[in-house]
Specification:
The chain is α+β, with helices and mostly antiparallel strands. It contains six helices and four strands. The longest helix has 27 residues. The mean pLDDT is 79.
């Protein structure tokens, strides 16, 4: 018997000339994946953030659900307390500040200082010359002359009345270039063991002379 012959593989026919079948790609040409666009990346990030926020909200709801009644009550009470507190604080914040009614600082008129120093030294001439001409005429019309003022100061000196010190409080401007000055004078008399304080209000004219004493 003849042994079976081993079959030889049949070689494939060569490709026809000019055909591109099975040809290798040209050198330098590679398959590349296009880069994602910016809107696509932004959309992916937005979806990721949305899903993450939704997951956290779901977890929070699962935790808060058993205590939902207490949460609502606590939130309501906190809101009421905050609203009432706002009603108490807000009027104080928007309320107009009161005007400053304190007496402003003005440089004292020299005539006022002369009058007070004349009191301390019993100098009637210094006091009389601190008055304006109109004020002097007004005093003289009431029979109070410079001589009468000198007699009054001499009487006070004999009685031991002393004008120990004076304190300037402040002054304000008045119409017609006038001004008003406020003083406190400490006076001591022998009959009293303690000194007493009296107030003086001087009104001066535009020339700085005293036109009224209160």
């Amino acid at each position: 018997m003849e042994e079976p012959r081993e079959q030889q593989p049949v070689a494939a026919p060569p490709p026809p000339a000019g055909s591109s079948y099975g040809a290798a790609p040209p050198l330098g040409v590679y398959a590349t994946t296009p880069a994602p666009s910016a809107p696509g990346v932004a959309a992916r990030v937005a979806r990721l953030l949305f899903h993450r926020a939704f997951w956290y909200a779901e977890q929070l709801w699962l935790v808060a659900r058993p205590h939902l009644g207490w949460i609502i009550l606590t939130t309501f009470l906190t809101g009421v307390i905050g609203f009432l507190s706002l009603l108490l604080i807000l009027p104080r914040l928007v309320r107009e500040q009161p005007a400053d009614i304190r007496v402003s600082w003005l440089q004292p008129a020299p005539a006022v200082v002369d009058f007070l120093r004349g009191q301390q030294t019993y100098d009637a001439d210094l006091m009389w010359n601190s008055f304006s001409a109109s004020f002097q005429e007004s005093l003289q019309s009431r029979d109070f002359t410079r001589e009468a003022l000198a007699e009054q100061m001499e009487q006070e000196r004999r009685n031991g009345q002393r004008y120990r010190k004076f304190q300037y409080i402040g002054g304000i401007k008045l119409p017609d270039n006038q001004a008003m000055y406020f003083y406190v004078v400490e006076v001591s008399v022998p009959q009293s063991a303690r000194a007493r304080s009296i107030s003086f209000v001087f009104t001066v004219d535009r020339d700085g002379k005293i036109v009224a004493i209160e």
